[in-house]
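Could you join me in thinking about how sequence relates to backbone shape in a protein? Label the sequence line and the structure token line clearly, so we can match residues to local backbone shapes. Once you have written the record down, we can walk along the chain together.
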Amino acid sequence: MGMQRSYRATVHTGRGVRGLIADRIDTCVGLPRLTPLEQTAPWVLGAFDLRGDLVPVIGLGVLHGEPIPWAAAADLVLVVVAAGFPLALHSARPVRIEPLSQSVPRWDRGHLQAGESAPGWLGYMDLSQLPLTARNVGGHADAERRLAQFEQRLSAQALNRLEQRARRYGDFAGQSPVASRTPTPAQQR
């Protein structure tokens, strides 16, 4: 019987570096164009299609009280598996990934809440406990507002680059749920 291996990683937020613990690391790719997700927590910036899976993109800084970051065409998303589901984490710069030592015993994840750290890994958040849905949120308008705030400093050229990435990461037919979105007037500058 083999041991399950987990990973710890760090991502760069607007105001610093945040640590996380994930069951598995899938990939790290350039930020694609996102689509809004209704009834989600404030730290869910949007989602994108990765090989047929809808992957929510999380702003860990927002979870820890930072404002919604401004996206840049050079930003990255680290796609991990947490609690059996894909999840992407926005990062302004390259990330650091390392396996948890096999000699370190696994902790009981059941007692951890969002924002809490696993024993022995101060500052690292266990993503299997991260809530993505939210009660009493503004629905589609709230999700659109968050995404518009995230994308507000992107030029039309940068948005086009993100659109191309979204199509490339999506299903094999080149279809993407965000392909029909158009830039806002502020983004067309």
